[in-house]
Amino acid sequence: MAIRIHIFLLFLLLPSTSATAFHFEDFNVEETIAATELKPIKEADTLQQSEEEEAPRLWKLKLHHRDKITALHNTFTLQDHRSRFNSRMRRDAKRVASLVRRTATRSNSYKDDDNNNDAFGFGSNVVSGTEEGSGEYFVRIGLGSPPTYQYVVVDSGSDIVWVQCQPCSQCYNQSDPLFNPATSTSFSGVACTSAVCDRLENAGCNQGRCRYEVSYGDGSYTKGTLALETLTFGKTLVRNTAIGCGHWNQGMFVGAAGLLGLGGGPMSFVGQLGGQTGGAFGYCLVSRGSTGSSGSLEFGREAMPVGAAWVPLIHNPLFPSFYYIGLSGLGVGGSKLNISEEVFQINDLGEGGVVMDTGTAVTRLPSSAYEAFRDAFVAETTNLPRAPAVSIFDTCYDLNGFVMVRVPTVSFYFSGGPFLTLPARNFMIPADDVGTFCFAFAASPSGLSIIGNIQQEGIQISLDGANGFVGFGPNVC
Predict the structure, then answer these.
(1) Most CB contacts within 10 A, which of 90, 204, 261, 265?
(2) Is residue 7 part of a domain?
(3) Are residues 348 and 242 in the same domain?
(4) Could you report the per-residue pLDDT of 141-155, keeping only the tens digit for each?
(5) Taking 60 as the threshold, does the pLDDT of residue 290 lie above it?
(6) In this model, does residue 402 exceed pLDDT 70?
(7) Cis peptide before 317 (omega within 30 of 0)
């Protein structure tokens, strides 16, 4: 599997005609079905040991899929794959609906003005992967001095760092003890008169301390104290990080203590690091259902690989938190489809465009593009038995009893020439454990396109915000 993925990534820097010999690829049905079974992690393999004792690089962390967190804590509330699949699709639909609402409205939180671009700004009303428990990927970081370690959701579409804190008036269950600011020598509350508090949307004041409030699209929220605190990543200390210390929180799941926002805004964790890491970070998302391995999240210019295919980031001043990229087209079976590039562009109102998002699972495409894409794929898979629609997917197959099948290649064509041909497991996903597979794309409810984490899995992705590029490959995970 890894060798096959490497071959596809090599196509990134080649002209589109070079891929004609690879119109189809083998897809291992049996292996993919077997991988849907979650297995509990043995005590000796706990994540705490790997995160707190190992630090191969100063700015590198292990990135865990929610399935691994579930297995670690034996929280098998959804035992069978079909139930987990349906739950994930419900979460995903809510995530997408919230992103669409957010990018369709010029809220006060995202005005293109001086306050929003100030290094001390602090966003609110963010929509994150925590909605209805929709956080898919987690890292383990240390909070305070001395550090106490917590799992937090990683979200490339949010500009906030926050955790639940003692004393807690309303908190959801998390796997680690609540963070207690009283035990940290580096915790410092932000005064109401500070510049940080002045620029905080929906800021309040209580006994001289600045209060924050963040509302999510599904009614979830976090409220508490705005503070400066030291965060620990492996052996690296990041002092005076602005965080929300939540005393009233609702809507989380699977044991995460809070959220690590990696959006493009100035008060995301990446924005706060500034010159320390050159505005750069990279990640590799481990495949869903994998409880025996981890992906990675790394900050700094050292995370920018040689040999990646670099695609320009597109700045949308109305929504600076998101990472927009230029998509020029889609391909099936080695051929680029006749889809207008305008379908994927940001319009004069700042709407539409293509966003890379770690919190969305399934890639969404404008209806006209999706229908052409789907129809081309269906035309090349007439030899495979069809299955009824499942959840958000209208194109599914009954592969029960198959060991291996051949499917047409699927590609993203980026502005400027590079293209990415996906491994089959990134677009043929199991809807159950008995052989129902679906084409893992869906129509967007608006003109916004979203490249989701299923399509990003296993591929090294590098975001160079300072220079305005996103890189794909050359490595896999």
Answers:
(1) 261
(2) no
(3) no
(4) 999 999 999 999 898
(5) no
(6) yes
(7) no
Cβ atoms 309, 8 nearer than 8 A:
no
What CATH number corresponds to the domain at position 131? 2.40.70.10
Question: Which residues are marked as active site?
Answer: 155, 357
Task: Give the tokens for residue 183.
Answer: 């035990």
Q: What long-range pairs does 167-171 form, CB within 8 A, spacing at least 24? A: 167/247, 168/246, 168/247, 168/248, 168/249, 169/247, 169/248, 170/247, 170/248, 170/249, 170/250, 171/246, 171/247, 171/249
Tokens 């029960």 sit at which residue? 400
Q: What are phi and psi of 16, to 5 degrees?
A: -60, -30
Nearest to 241 by CA among 263, 211, 204, 271: 271
pLDDT digit string (tens) for 36-81?
A: 876 655 443 444 444 444 444 567 888 887 766 665 555 545 567 8
Amino acid type, 153: V
Q: Do 92 and 120 belong to one domain?
A: no
C-alpha 147/C-alpha 160 separation (Å) is 20
Q: Residue 61 in 3-state DSSP?
A: strand
Mean pLDDT of 149-176: 90
- Whole-angstrom distance, CA of residue 386 vs CA of residue 101: 34
Q: Which residues touch 77 (CB under 8 Å, ≥6 apart)? A: none
Choose one of 262, 296, 330: the last residue of a domain.
296
3-state secondary structure of 218: coil
Backbone angles phi, psi at 331, to 5 degrees: -135, 150
Q: Which long-range contacts (CB under 8 A, 24 or more apart) does 198-206 make?
A: 199/115, 199/118, 199/120, 199/121, 199/122, 200/122, 200/124, 200/226, 201/108, 201/109, 201/122, 201/123, 201/124, 201/125, 202/124, 202/125
CA 386 from chain center: how many Å? 31
Residues 461, 312 share a domain: yes
269 lies in which domain range?
104-296
Number of domains making up the chain: 2
Per the domain annotation, does 195 fall within a domain? Answer: yes
HEC sequence for 31-48: HHHHCCCCCCCCHHHCHH
CB 126 within 8 A of CB 158: yes
State the residue for tokens 């699949």: 85
Identify whether 221 is part of a domain.
Answer: yes
What's the CA gap between 374 and 442, in Å, rounded?
Answer: 9
Mean pLDDT (whole number) for 11-28: 60
Q: Is residue 122 part of a domain?
A: yes
Residue ending a domain, among 296, 320, 353, is 296
What is the spatial distance between Cα 197 and Cα 191, in angstroms, rounded to a whole number? 7
